Each structure stands twice: as structure tokens, then as C-alpha cells.
Amino acid sequence: MERETRNRFGGLLAAAGVTLSAGLVASFLARRRAWHGDDAPGYTQPRSFGDYDVTGRSVTIREPRQKLYEFWRDFANLPRFMENLEEVRQQGDDGDSVWVIKAPAGRSVEVETKIAREEPGELIAWRSVEGSDIDTEGRVTFEDAPGERGTRVKLIIAYKPPAGEVGKRVAKLFQREPAIQARHDLKRFKMLMETGEIATSARTADQTRAAQQENG
Amino acid sequence: MRALTWHGTRDVRVETVDDPEIINPRDAIVKITSTAICGSDLHLYDGVIPGVKPGDVLGHEFMGEVVDTGRDSTLKKGQRVVVPFTIACGGCFHCKSQQYSACDNSNPVEKQDMSATLYGQPMSGLFGYSHLTGGYSGGQAEYVRVPFSDVGPIVVPDHLEDEKVLFLSDILPTGWMAAENADIQPDDTVAVWGCGPVGLFAIQSAIVMGAARVIGIDHYPHRLELARKLGADIVNFRETDVREALLEMSGGIGVDAVIDAVGMESHGFAIDNMLDVAKQKVGIGADRASALKQAILAVRFGGKVSIPGVYGGMTDKWPLGAMMEKGLQIRGGQTHVQKYTKDLLAKIEDGTLDTTFLISHRLPLEDAPRGYHCFKEEQDSWTKVVLKPGMETTA
Ligand SMILES: [Zn+2]
Ligand SMILES: [Zn+2]
Q1: What pLDDT is recorded for position B313?
Q2: pTM of the full predicted structure?
């Protein structure tokens, strides 16, 4: 079942990211049929996406696709591994939600998002609604990895560096290397899924990263 | 608790630090009964490994008694365990392939970037060994927090005293994997550079695996004597031209397999190490790989090269031509300790392997700085130091 709403930058994410297809031969051919010069994901090229910054990252998780999809689809779980997210408040069942993002100086910014497209077990795409403080959209895809490697999870995030006073604060936050942020968030997701916990080398509980953050 | 902490090059101190606590569900807390100083601790002591911070608790060879467990630990209070120095989750692709020292999930996320930049992918977590590998507090202390305690620690039976099983934490599996990586066949002549703890255990392992002849290379008389007692032939590189000797001892063919159990601080094996020393002082520049370079020249065409010695960075003047033209197989890596502990414990129990011959000194934890100093400066007689937190200090 596929549900698709009008998506302002759907083409952008497709260009930056993945094509999904069913079946071995089809997916093999799809990879051959790259729209640009080579077969690498678009976001690995140093090229411009207009007003938008695009970052993407993959991680392989040795767990079933469906389990990973379901955990992610419950957006309330995201703050468990996304460092910048304070909380996600879900509104109803269609995936409308408010993402509370940490901003500098103990403030936070709220972004209302809608699910833009969803393919159970394979893809979740979301975007901020018109007029949000942050103009952003994201897409996570889940794809079977070869052999017993589990699932390839790919996260692509596009966002428009915002204007205005709030915008500047948020921009500062996002410009803290969104690529590194995405990489770290995905690694934490992997740890949580594969081990049930997120590794820390702290010796005492109040030395943990979480505790440090809570203490400001 | 009391713990051995790093403060700078040749500056380690026993201090009082916060006791460890259970943080994650799979954690356990172990009260240390025995812990050893390792040759690779001397790389930290000498300041040649980056990412060590003042106050870090060192030590990655340790064992003790379980005193606390998280809700998902499979250990029970009161059990005696030896803890592998490699921290491994047991659930990732690498752990499932028994490549435990390549675990994807044991190095905290925010610590992975440095080694990912250096090596292309991040390293896994290790106890007491720099923030490159997680910055985990080590076991040269009264207590240690052990993550993934359901995967790493091996429970040891009460009738085996600490000194028989302690080295399951690192050097025994490391010596064993070094020999395994040399793919030893029954007719093989195997040369081992360095008769320190890992070299000696590699010699012992190669003999157990059925090598026809094992040759230990070093210059410390006592260490060479220990190698000979294990059944190896010995070559003293201060007295003998090693390449010439190995060529003759293998009937002109070259030795079948070589093991470099010296690592990045190998001294005196070649003349090019002045340059390498200078670069090493600048940061993670050039490893002094002179033993390895010599080994690559000594091994026969189609021979096998095993590298258990620790290397961190890059090296100059690598004999790439010899490697290619001779068709060598080169294997290295941090030890997949968890893969070997069970089998090696059985070999200790049935008497196939004995590791106690190695221990030259036993000191209270409080004397650890002296242990480091002497292990570094008096390598011939200080072959292995075991620290005991509970031991009486004798001044
Ligand atoms: Zn060691
Ligand atoms: Zn693992």
C-alpha cells in the first residue's frame, strides 16, 4: 500500500537518493539505469541541490527489515537515537507529528511534519508543513542486505537553511555538520537495534552523554 | 576506588577515582583480583598512541569476581571471570562472523570519527586503550565496568588459580591467533620476531599446532632462554645476521611463515628507524616496522606473514615489491579474543598450554608505576608483571 501526498521536493530526494524496486533482476537493472553519469548515490557528489542542503548516509543493521521499519515508524522512538530531537508528539495515526528540536541556549524549536510517502517495510518520507520554522524533508529506506547482513538503512535529509531570527538559531544548529549528525544518529539506531542499548564508555551514570546534556 | 591513571609520557599514577557503576542493561561490575601490564601498555606509557587523556584508567588484561550485574547480564554475582580486552556486542555482522575485535557497536558513536578517518572504518572498543578505541576505563584498578558482559567474560572454574587463566584476556589468544594467521602446516619452519609475552605464546601455539621447527628471534638472553625452554630454536639478532641465519636454517629456501610479535616500537632491527622515530614523535606518523620489514625479506616465496604486533599509523619504506613479487599472504588484526577463550581454557585445563612460566613479578596495584618503569627498562628480567589490588604492599 502506497500513500503519496503532494511532495514539493520528491524529485530532489529521488535524485539524491535511491530508487526502490521489487525483485532481484529489476533492482539490478535499476542500478544500471542511473540517471546521471555513474551509479553512486547523488548525495555523494559535490553538487548543488538549489536552495537545499542534502545529506545522506547508509548503515547496515543485522536485523529484519520489518522490525527496523516499525521501530522507526513509531516516531516517538526517534529521540532515543537522534541527538537533536527532544521529543516527537504524534497527532493521530496518519503520521502527522510535531518534532521538538533542541536549539542552543536551552531553547527548542517545533517543526510540524507530515508523512509524505510511506511504503510499509520499505520507506518512510516526511516533510515539514508550510510555514514551519524549518523547511525540511527526510526519507528513510529499508532494503534487504546481501546474505545474512540484515538490512541496509539509508537516511536522506534535505533542508533549506532558514532565514529570520529563529531561523538563524536553527541554522546554526543544523550547520553543526548535518552529515556527521546523520551518521551518528544512524549508528546509534544500529546500536539500539542490534544490542538493545547505546554504547558508552562512561564509568559512572552521571558521566554519560545523556546526563551531561541534561545538566546543560 | 584506587586505579592506575595515565598523565603523560612516562607518567602513570595510582589515584583514587570514582567507582564504576552499571549504566547499560548488559553491564557487569567486576572486582579485580589480578591484572597484568602488557607490552602494548608501554606504547601508551611512551606516548606513541594518540587519544589518551590525563586521568584515563589503563589496563586491558584483567580478571576478577562479579559483584554487580545489569538486568540483561547473564553473569551472576560471585562468579570468577576473565574479561577479553576486546569489547564486543555479539550481535553485529562482525561479531556474528566471529570477528569480535571488529565489533560495530562497542566504540561509542562520538568516539568513532577519529579512527574512521585514519582507517576508513572506525575501530571497536577496547578496555583501557585511548579514546580512539572508546576511552573505556581499564582494569588496572579495584573495579571495572564491563559492557556486553553476556558476550565477553568467560567464567573460570575455582580450581584454576588466577595466574593460570589471566592471560586468556589478551596475550594467550593473541599468540594463538598469530600462529593461526601464519596458517601453519606440519612441515613448516616458523620464525617469530620478538620473544616477549606474545612472541612466546605464538611460539608455544605454533608448536602445539604442529610446526616442524620454530625459531625465536630476540636479543634479551633471558627471553631467548624462555623460548628455548618452550622448544624453539633461537637467534640473537645482536650476534647473528638474522636474514643469513634464517636462509641457512631453512636450507636456502627461506622460512615458510613469519610472525612479527614486536610491533610499532621495534628497536634495533634496522638502520632506518631514526627517521621513523622522528616522525613518531610528531604524532601518529611512522611506525618503526623494522622487524616486519626484515620478516618480509626472510620469508620464502609464497610464504605467510602474520602481524600480531601493534601498529597504529603508517610506515615508510615498505617492501612492497617483495610482498608482490614473492606472492605473500599477509594477515594481521587485533585479536578476536572471544573466539578463542573457550578452546584455550580447555587447553589450559588439560595441560596442553601453561602460561605461568611467563610471570616474573607480582606487585600490589599501588606499585603499578614501578611495574611500568621496570617492565620498560629491564625487559630481560621483567618478562610479565601481574598486579594484585588486594596484595600487601611491601616497602
Ligand atoms: Zn595486552
Ligand atoms: Zn558486535
Answers
A1: 72
A2: 0.88
**Single-letter amino acid, residue B285:** G
Nearest to B108 among A150, A194, A201 (CB): A201
For residues A79 and A71, what is the distance between their CA atoms, to the nearest angstrom? 12
DSSP alpha helices (H): ranges in B99-168? 112-119, 162-165
Taking alpha carbons only, the member of B78, B227, B223 closest to residue B158 is B78
Q: How far apart are CA A136 and CA A132, in angstroms?
A: 9
Nearest-CA distance A65 → chain B (Å): 15
Which pLDDT score is estimated for B275?
A: 41
Residue in chain B lying closest to A200 (CA): B108
Tell which phi-psi region holds residue B85, choosing left (phi > 0), alpha (psi between -120 and 50) or beta.
alpha
* Residue B206 to residue B191: CA distance in whole angstroms: 10
Distance from CA of B322 to the nearest CA of A (A): 36
* Closest to B177 in 3D by CA, of B129, B209, B152: B209
Compute how many other C-beta atoms are within 10 angstroms of the C-beta atom of residue A119: 16
Residue B298's identity, in one-letter code, is A
Pick from B19, B93, B135: CB nearest A201: B135
Per-residue pLDDT tens over the stretch B22-66: 999 999 999 999 999 998 899 899 888 888 999 999 999 999 999
Are residues B380 and B221 in contact, defined by beta-carbon separation less than 8 angstroms? yes
Indicate yes or no: CB of A208 within 8 angstroms of CB of B23. yes
Q: Tell which residue, B59, B58, B52, has the closest CA to residue B9.
A: B52
The ligand minimizing its distance to the Cα of B101 is 2
Cell of B265: 616500537
Q: Do A199 and B96 touch (CB under 8 A)?
A: no
In this prediction the ipTM stands at 0.90
**Structure confidence at residue B271 (pLDDT):** 32
Cα separation, B384 vs A89, whole angstroms:
58
Mutation choice for A interface testing from B100, B105, B130 by most A CBs within 10 A: B105
DSSP A215: T
- Cα–Cα distance for residue pair B92/B97, rounded to 1 Å: 9
Query: Is B23–A190 a contact, with Cβ atoms under 8 angstroms apart?
Result: no
Whether A198 and B134 lie within 8 Å, measured CB to CB: no
Residue matched to cell numbers 548535518: A178
Q: How do residues B213-269 score in pLDDT, each as one tens digit? A: 999 999 999 999 999 999 999 999 999 999 999 999 999 999 999 999 986 554 333
